[in-house]
Every structure is written in structure tokens, then in C-alpha cells.
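hey team, just a heads up i'm posting the complex here instead of the shared drive bc the drive is being weird again. everything in one block, sequence lines first with there labels, then the predicted structure for the whole assembly after. its two chains so it's a bit long, scroll down
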Amino acid sequence: MATVMHVGLNHYLVLSALLFSIGVLGVLLRKNAIVILMSIELMLNAVNLDFVAFSKYSGNIDGQAMVFFVMTIAAAEAAVGLAIAVAVFKRFKEVNISYFEKLKG
Amino acid sequence: MNENFLITVLLLSPLLGFLINGFLVRYNNKSHLRAGAIATAAAGISFFSAVSLYFKLLGLGAEERTLHTVFFNWLNIGTLNINMGFTVDPISTVMILIITGVGSLIHLYSVGYMSHDAHPAKFFSYLNLFLFNMLILVLGDNLVLMFVGWEGVGLCSYLLIGFWFDDPEKAAAGMKAFIVNRIGDAGFLLGLFTIFVTFKSVEFSELSKMAFAPEVGVWGPITLATFCLFVGAAGKSAQIPLYVWLPDAMAGPTPVSALIHAATMVTAGIYMIVRLNFMFIAAPTTMHIVAAVGAATALFAASIGLLQTDIKKILAYSTVSQLGYMFLGVGVGAFGAGFFHLMTHAFFKALMFLGAGSVIHGMGGEQEVTKMGGLAKKMPITYKTFLFGWLAIIGTPLFSGFFSKDEILWKAYSSPLGSKFLWMIGVVAAGMTAFYMTRLMCLAFWGTSRVDKSVKVHESPLTMTLPLMILAGLSLMGGWVGVPHIFGPIPNLLEGWLEPVVHDVTSEGSFLEEWMTMTASVALAGFSAFSAYYLYVLNPNLPKEWAQKLKGLYTLVYNKYFVDEIYGWAIVRPLVQLSRGLWAYLDVRIVDRTTYLVSDIVKGTGAGLRLMINGNVQQYALYIVFGVLISLAFIFAR
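-- predicted structure starts here --
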């Protein structure tokens, strides 16, 4: 029988690192602004996972409180980012990240 | 009135005149009357302050005749403490009276002389600036402040020599004066530094309190300091080997030649030595050099003057020669006599320059004496006043030049620092002076007229002749303040006046000797003057014949011993070639290339780095990731 795998801190951390790396690659490689925003969200949530995991294993509630701040910031960031994406879409009928160059001056 | 107030007015009046006229230049002021009136008034106010200060000093006891005022503390660095302070004492009083008095007359004269000029306001503003700087030079209570005035008058001299800078020759003359003076000024600065390092002070009052024991041997700090200062004096006062700028300085307007290059600025060197007499007397080696250079210059310049044909050049070489006399005087320890000659020379040489200016003005710009002749009838006032100057400079008894020149010659003969040889040179130079001055009179005023028919000779206006008349009076009477004691009970006023601050070397000699030397020099001068008259009026063809016979010597002297050419060949040309070489090889090939290389490296790096900043946001994000990875690697690798 398969033994019940004990889930420890390391598992959380490895998962978090994987999620974060996927987020980084998404930001670096994808051209669609919406996907990039999603990838950023993924990175933030990977960090959130770390916070919660450390909080649980150290018995300190501070990390969990911090997560709420991160979520708030992430929501605000998403709102602004999506608004810009909408503006870019209106102008170019596409939300390719390369159009963001045109925003200067 | 309070002395601080008087000194303030004395100094600021010319400065204010300079500012007002300098401001008017902006408005293209062509009125010579307005500019001249402002400048002359400024000089006149200064003169009245100087006279008031003189009477103030006269009211004090002989030993306490010093008025000192400090406007503010100027520099305070370490042990160096310099005040913006001014001293009025017997020496500087005589100087400020000459500067503002003769200066005012020359300002007045310039109103007429510059009446046809395009930029009178500029001219008068420079003239006032000169007065201001000259007053700082003589009144400054320390060597640094004196140096400020010293440089200031040099600047004004340069500006005024090159006043008509449209003519490249005149502009070059201005630059020559400036550059030659720089050489002397370097000497002055070195002397100043030596004094500060050795005595920890640059204030005259403090220095004079130190008792300087005469230096033994040929070498020492005082000798070094005074020698360097003398180099400065030789530059400013046109002595061998730095005299070459003064004859060229005649390119400036004639009133400038009279004020700056005869009466005041060129005497700054003498003034400085008289001011520091307590220090020079302690350096016998320097004193010997001063006397030797003075005597050599007196003779050398006088001999060049013998054959010049430009009226201003004759007077210029005469000035160099007379300045040599003054250095001979101070060099044998007769500071009072040198200073006395400075004063009388200021009167008669200013008179002669202004007279020459009047002649040039009346001749429509002609300066060659060979094209003059017989002007005595056409310009009677100029002629009669010039006559006074002539009588004074050749040393006619009772005229000012007689007393001062004879005092110098007598001291050169009798002082322990002097010798019979120096006296002989002085007497020969005096004979030459009488010759070339009489020659000038013959060629310009006497004899038959050689004036071109097209030139309408006319007498100058009153603004020009009035200063001539006043200066003629001073040329006659200026010497009466220094009558030597052999003339009986008449007191020597100047000697008594200077006595508390100037300490002459006591000379020994009998009455008989003094009478004999005096008679000898007067007789030689009279003989020279008569032979000049004989040669140039009675037998005008004889000089040409003699010139033919002594062709080699004539060419040598006529071309001023080729000194300018020798300097050009030995100093200027190597310098220019060296500079060219440095420019072509060191500057272009090494310095320029190195800087280009550095800038190319920077530019190339920038061009490379610019490729990274291309506006691609994702690429920027990649840089951040790389940065994080490198940081992590660094942390874990430890």
C-alpha cells in the first residue's frame, strides 16, 4: 500500500519555487500582456505560499497577515495592468507586449 | 576733515570717473567735452584731496607724519594677514601730489588732444582707471597691495598703448609692453615671496621696524629679495635689459606717453626702492647692481637718443636714460636724490611730451623731426614752454633738472657706495642728454622750415597750452625745494621732508669737490648743447657728412644697437620655434591623441551599452532575473 506521504515544509518550498520559476518564464517569454499579468500573479502567489508555509511551521501568524497585504497589492496591480492592457487593445487591436514600447513619449 | 574721508575721496574719485565714463561707452558717447569734463573733474577732486592730506601732514610733527587707514581685512590665511590699508607718509605724499597734479593737467590737455578721436569716453575711462591703480600702488601699506596697483597700472598701460588697436603695429606694441612687464613682475613676486618667507610680514611699517644689519658677503636672503624686487623695478621702469618696451610704447596717444610712460608709472620702480630703502641699504650687492644698471642704462639710452628722428622716440629714450639716473641715485644710497629727480623729471618730461603732442597735433600727426623746423614762430606758446623743459633737462643752473641731476652726480661721486667711474658715466650721459635735446630743439623749433607745403601748422587750443604753461613753471621752480647746502643758507626742503622715512647713506666730500664736479657737468652739458646747435643749425650739412664717414657706427646707433633684433633672434625666435615644436609634436601627437583615445573608449562603451536599453520590457525583466541569479550564486557560493 502506498504509504501516506508526509507533507513537510520542503514540499511547500519546492512547489513554491516551481510556481515562481514558471511565473518568471511566463513573464520573460510570453508576448501577450494578459498572460504576462497572469504570470506575475503566479509569482506573487508562489511567494504567498512561502509565507503561509513558513507561518505554519514556525507557529507565527505574521506571515499569514503579510499574505493579505500581498493580495491587496496584487489586486491593485492587476487592475492597473488590465486597464493599460485594455487601452493598448483599443489602440492596436492586440495586447502584444511589444506595443508597450510605443507608450514612450 | 577726517583723513579716512580724504583718502577715500582720493581713491574713489578716479574709480567713479572710470565707472561713469566706462558706462557712457555703452551709449556710444562721442562727446569729448562731456567725457573729458567728467574725467578731469575726477582727477581734480583727487588732487584737492591730495593737497588737503599734504597740509594735514604738514600740521603734524616731523617724526609722526604718517596717516594710516584700514578699510577692511582683505586676506587672512595662516600667518599671512593683509589689510586693505593705505598709508600717507612723506614719500607717498610727494607721489600722490605728482600723480594727481600732473595727472589732472594731462587730463585737461587730453580734452583738446583727443577732440578728433572716435572713442573719447573709452580713453578717459582708462586714464581714470590708471590714476586709481597708481594711487593704490603708492598708498598701499603692504607689498601685496602695492603689487595689485603694480599690475593694475600695467593693465592700463597695455590698454592705452594699444588704444588705436586697428593698427596692428600699435596693438603689437601694447602686447610687447605687457609681456616684457610680465618678466619683471615675476621678479617682483619672487621678491615678495622671499620677504614673506624670511621676515613673516609684508607690511612696510612692520618691516621698517626690523633692524636690518647689512648683509656680509655677496649673498643672503635680503640680497635675494631686493635683487628680485629690482628685476621687477627694471621691468616697470624700463632698465637694461628690459627697457625695450618703453620706446615702442610711444604708439599710444601722446598724453598717455606723458602721464604713464614718463611722469608716473615708469617711476614706480624708483618709488618701490625708496619705500624699501631700509632693506636695500642692507644689501650692498644689490645696491651695486642697481647703480651699475642705472648708470649703464643712462649712458646706453642717451646714446641711442642721439640719432633718433621720431620726436616721441627721442623723448622715450631720454626717459629711459633719466630713469637710469634715478636708479644710479638710489643705487649709491642717495634715495632722496633719486626721488628728487623722479619729481623734477615728472614735471619737465611731462611738459616735453605734452609739448611734443602739441607739435604733433599742430602738424596734423607728423612725428618726424626731419620734416619739422622753424616751428618757433608758428607755435609760440608750445615753443616757449618747451624751452623751459629743454633748459631743465640739460641741467641749466637754477632750473629743476639742474638741482636733482647734480645731486645724483655728486652722490655718485662722493657716496661710499659710489665711485668716480660711475660719476664719469653720469657726466658723459648728461653731455649726451644736452646734445640730443638741443638737436631736438634745432630740428623742430629752430633753423629753416622743412614743413611740407600741404600741412597747415597751427597753435593748439587753450586746454592744451594751459597745462604746458603750468608745467613750464614747475619745471623752473620744482627744483627749488632741494637746493644743495653749498648754495648757502637756503634750506633743502625736500631732504627735511623725507628725512624721517628715508635714510640716505652719508657721503663725504669737500665743498671744493662739489663745486668742481658741478662745474664740470654744467660745462660739458653747455659744450654739448652748443655743438648740437653748431651742427644742426649753423652747419646743417655737417652731420650728414659725418654719418657718411662713420657709416658703421652710425648704422649701429641709428638702429638702436639692434637690441630688438638680437632679442628677437636669441629669445623670441627660439621660444616661438620651441612652442611650435611642442604644439606639433607634444600637443597634437601625444596630448590630443591620448584624449581622443579616452573619449573613443567612452563612446564605444556607451554605444555597446546602448544596445541593452532598447525599450523591450521583457529584456529588462531578464536583466533583473540575471541580477537576482548572480546575487543568489554569490550568496550560496560563499
